[in-house]
Amino acid sequence: MKIVQLVDHHSENMGYSDVCLSYSLSSLSHEVSVISSKFKANYNQRNYGDVYRNFHSESDKNYDYKKVNGYHLYRLNSIKSPFGLFFFGLFPLLKKLKPEIIQVGEANSFLLFQVYIYSFFLDYIITVECHIHLSVYNAAKKFNQIYKNKNIKNRIKFFIRKLKQKLFYFYISKIISTKVKRCYPISQDSEFIAINYLGYKSKQTKIMKLGTNVDLFNNDLQRNNDLKKKLGFKLHDIICIYTGRLDESKKPHLLSEAISKLNYDGFRNVRGLFIGDGTKKYKKKLENQFTKVIKFQEYKNLPKYYRISDIGIWPSQESTSQLDALACGLPLILNDEIGTPERVMDCGFLFRKDSVDDLSEKISILLNKDLRLKFSNNAAMKAKQNYSWKEIACKYIKDYVNLLEK
Question: Could you give the CA distance from residue 294 to residue 275 in angstroms, rounded to a whole number?
């Protein structure tokens, strides 16, 4: 089967679905092509320079094609429009590749409009992923959830945002969705957004969870005690790990504060390991005598850091890193408003959102070695049974076949 993954941006050294799913589909002997702009992942974030620029290799932006991770990667020139990226040369490339399936990486991407237009001239089936969680989707939030200051300026902004969303729903998404054969939300709250805000019908949606590479991330890997010492930890330290963007929206500072609190309360061997980047000002919030902050690591290098850790903690928002940590046998602690609470079932805890006291309490419970071991075994088993990218890729292929046969 010829499959195209069409995404706004792509970084082959990161663990996002456009990398991992494409690799897994190609490993099943399908011809997979990823078509992206020349931008790297998260290029459109306001703090890109502080967070990602040092990690991404900017020197290889100019290549147009290469085979990587088992799939074909094409990078096209693009222009930023008010609606999103427009790709130059997409039509002739699709005409050349002759895909049976084109899967657009995000349900609100302007690329969906491009393939909608081209579908009148080329023969393929359009599918789309929806990765949007309620925790980050402002269109589904009330005014008080977005703005603290209730001034006129913010009220006008809120009104315009709501108006744009309504116009998009009724005049754009409703029309485009008629050509989309399947929308794949990654969770129940993503499905809610797809149906109620993006114009898809419930019969069009099929939840497909995100996954992890269980061959790379697993609890069979030996703990590297030399690495633990090199990072400044003692062998008996209990390490709480967080990986990802270091900023106010992800709130890793809550973990740093909880670790400090536990130490001052007498739990002297609790430590924090933060892997990522952010502004110097924000990173200072994380740095203290009980924590270690290191820069982003390539996806393939992360398992060794998870394996020297004992608990995985993400204080705010969903992250695929949580699944990588699960696969390595880490109990998880997430906040109680997360869109994917099933990740911690039988292998961790939910804490009251934004509460350092409750987060500290949940960590203290997991200082029990026997409970931690039980949750660790449950976590690794859950990842293998429910979150293997290979198994998820097989489910995609099965659904693609059904769509092609209709």
Answer: 5
> Is 299 within 8 Å of 13 (Cβ atoms)?
yes
Among candidates 291, 289, 217, which has minimal Cα distance to 252?
291
Contact between 12 and 52 under an 8 Å Cβ cutoff? The reply is no
Domain assignment present for residue 14? The answer is yes
Radius of gyration of the chain (CA): 22
Tell me if 218 is assigned to some domain.
no
State the DSSP string of 129-177.
EE---TTT-GGGS-HHHH-S---HHHHHHHHHHHHHHHHIIIIIIHHHT
Q: Which pLDDT tens digit goes with each residue over 245-264?
A: 999 999 999 999 999 999 99
Q: Please say whether the dihedral angle defined by the alpha carbons of residues 97, 103, 104 and 105, taken in this order, is positive or negative.
A: negative
Query: What distance in Å separates the CA atoms of residue 385 and residue 223, rounded to the nearest whole number?
Result: 23
Closest CA to 207 of 49, 396, 358: 396
Q: What pLDDT is recorded for position 218?
A: 95
Structure tokens at 221: 């890997």
Neighbouring CB atoms inside 10 A of 242's CB total 28
What digits encode the pLDDT tens for the residues 158-193?
788 777 777 766 667 778 888 999 999 999 999 999
Q: Give the Å distances, CA to CA, from 149 to 77, 141, 153, 157, 205.
A: 40, 15, 9, 12, 37
Whether residue 99 sits in one domain with residue 57: yes
Nearest to 249 by CA among 51, 109, 82, 107: 51
The answer to whether the beta carbons of residues 97 and 76 sit under 8 Å apart is no
Residue 161 burial (10 A CB sphere; 0-12, 13-18, 19+): middle
| 229 and 358 in a common domain | yes
Q: Which domain holds residue 104?
A: 2-211+388-405
- Nearby residues of 271 by Cβ (< 8 Å), 6 or more positions away: 233, 237, 238, 239, 240, 259, 290, 291, 292
